Amino acid sequence: MILSVNNITKSFGEKQVLNGISFSAESGKAVGILGRNGAGKTTLIRIIMDVFGADSGEVYLDGNPINKQKIRIGYLPEERGLYPKHKIMEQLVYFASLQGIDKKTAINNANALFNRLNIEEYKNRRLDTLSKGNQQKVQLIATLITNPDLIILDEPFSGLDPVNASLLKDLVKDLIKDGKLVLFSSHQMNYIEEFCNEILILNGGKIVLGGAIKDIKRSYARNIIEITTENSTAIADFLNTSQHNFIKRVIVNEDNITVTLTDENFKDKLMENLSQLGNSIDGFAVKEPSLNEIFVSYTEGQI
Amino acid sequence: MKQFFTVFKFEFINFIKNKIFVGLTLVLAIVIAIVTFFPRLADGKDISLNFGDDTIPSLLIVNNSGDETLTDALKSALIDYEITVEKYDLAKAKELVTNEEYKIAIVIDSPLKYNYVVDNLGLYDTTSYIIDEILLSSYKMNYLANAGLSNEEIDEFSNAFVTSESIIVGQDQTQSFFHAYLLMMVLYMAVLIYGQLVAQSVATEKSSRAMELLITSANPKSLIFGKVIGTGVAGLAQITVLLLWGVICIVINKEYLADNEVMSMFMSISPSVIVYTVVFFVLGFGLYAFLNGAMGSMASKLEDVGTLTIPVMFTFIVSFVITIAFMSADNIDNPFINILSYIPFTAPMAMFARICMGTASHLEALISIVILIISIYGVGRLAVAIYRIGILMYGKPPKFNEIARALKKNK
Known about the structure:
- The structure holds 2 protein chains of 2 kinds.
- By secondary structure, chain A is an alpha/beta fold.
- Chain A contains 10 helices and 14 strands.
- In chain A, strand 1 and strand 2 form a beta hairpin.
- The longest helix of chain A has 16 residues.
- Chain B folds into 2 domains: 99 residues, D-Maltodextrin-Binding Protein, domain 2, CATH 3.40.190.10; 239 residues, no CATH class.
- Chain B has a 4-stranded mixed beta sheet, with helices on both faces.
- In chain B, strand 3 and strand 4 form a beta hairpin.
- In chain B, helix 9 runs antiparallel to helix 12.
């Protein structure tokens, strides 16, 4: 299954929210949608889900417009949305039946998920009697109860303790492994890096950066080397004193040294020089920019 | 369509399961039962509704008029009192009442002048009227006797009375006013309460953000139609159950209720008026509930609902007040009310009042009903359009011209 979004534009009144958004995603992979608050992520998600139409552009699934009768979409909204005063199982069945799932299937699916998320004892309680973390699990059950092919998760991990977060993480990983198409929006970059093969960064209604995370990182200059060692001062002195004309800058940190080379091809030369020194080195690696740094550098300006 | 039924069922069942809804229905049913069974239970028993103390009040008569027959006349008329006759002056009488030795003191100065001394004058104290009556008739009798009339002549004169019989060829407005007033209250309350519930329910879904999931699971048309009709049917079920229960209670107690003036008025309500009550509830509710649903969709917080629904509810309240005012003034057959009974927003009250008071023919009622149905269709479509925009708006409730602009753009 391939989701392709072609040249979407959308404005509310005077405000142009999306301005020519195009990307594609396929089953068995997760795509991270990043953007600052107000960048248009929710609008993009709503257009994909056909809550409202785009001003121009199309959303296709395997080359056809999305038919909600046939394709099930699981959505976990950033602002959690369920009835607080209703019994959990009752409302889950209601939301499933709105999407065309019969009661029996809904209950079976829900039970399997309750079991998986260890909250079986709460299924006949009122939602507002549960803790925040458990409410979040129920929200995820509401997302997955229809066994959807396309899953959109907006900040699924906010408010979860580490144990629950890892429980949910395993579930999401399994979904990807099972061949679901996952769109994942979060500000927690570590989760994005963990799940998503690809990302797109929205800013000012446009995709300012998109592609595989690995490729994006590799596209940055690879001339900064991080050396992990316990003898950082000795090594730093050596690199500074001996006349190494391929070294631009040496910065000494507490337990490592970052060396900026004049060209990334001098990595081997640096390693050779260090091996002559005979000091113990724990690590030698090209320093890649973190996703966080990439995100900030692309979105720092105007939204 | 399937989605509509899913929403409808969910909304309807929510009402049926709601403890407040069920409790209120039960309380109203009990009230109906108490009112209708009371005459049966009270039959043959001396159940007086006197909540005061049971001791016989004491009354002092001081007759300084010189006409001793007045004392006897008063004694035989004021049977509810323990009467003492003394020769005191006014000051002494006042003192005795102040000291609570007597509840009331009557100090007669002359055949047409007396003082009524009482500690606290009750709102329903009729004793002084009785005294007025007795003094006046004694005076007249004495006057006539002095003028030379015989006792028989005086009797005949004082026992004269007028007989009359009202022959009602049209609607009895004294009776229909009462039941029209009552049914209008029922209709008014039902439309107001259930209409407000729709607005609140939509706003609750928005404020709890359940709407986020609803709009991605179902289309807005199914959501608002399901909610309005689900709520309406729940209201209709409640009204029908209570009306039927009322009829059952009245039928069971028919023989005991026949003598009761108020009850016999209920029993005189014609079946067609009952049918019209239901029809105008459905139509009035439909019209106002769609508007309320649309207004509720624009509220981000529950607190906003009141402000947003004011224009809608105000229209309805005004239509009720105007209609009631003309009814009270016995002027329901008036060109103004006539016009109002065909305007969709005032018709549920004005036409219904005209039907109850018997000034509208079935054809006129039908025309009004058709106008209402067409209007509900239009208002329903408008409500869906507003709802579609409203449910996605968060923050300050939008102004009406902003809504109009958004509607225009979406067309």
